[in-house]
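queue> holo job accepted (protoporphyrin IX containing FE)
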Amino acid sequence: MANESTYSLMGGAETIRNIVQAFYPKVLAHPDLSPLFPTDINPVMEKQYMFLTQFFGGPDLYTTEVGHPMMRARHLPFEINETRAQAWLQCMREALTEVDLSEELQAFVLERLSGPAYHFINTSE
Ligand code: HEM
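queue> job finished
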């Protein structure tokens, strides 16, 4: 595992695409999360695809196409409390169980996303 990126261990582009496709319907169906997102979710899905690709060690698609990730700053316009961070992670947990990832990788991926999710909390409301 030392020299291989999480991205390739996960199964590369196809798996990241599947995760994003499994994840957003859950986000849009979640009462705590859906009000934050636009009706047309496709651009968000595309950016998430690019971001997760580079976050897990694949090509730097997000930086190339969008710019510096600055993810906490990009989330500041949205009220993110602990409940929403947990809801986001729960949707991701469910998405990861839907795609063909080993339990070990699921746990690793979720752990890597937990840090940013809690870091994006910007209100206690
Ligand atoms: C903590 C709970 C989170 C909430 C409530 C949340 C919510 C949102 C919202 C509302 C948007 C903007 C949608 C729009 O364009 O109108 C967004 C964009 C995005 N989020 Fe999150 N998010 C969370 C956590 C995360 C995490 C943990 C990551 C990845 C580490 C992430 C990655 C992204 C990306 C890549 C975008 C697109 C940014 C762009 O516009 O370029 N989010 N998120």
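queue> Residues 7-119 form a domain with the Globin-like fold (CATH 1.10.490.10).
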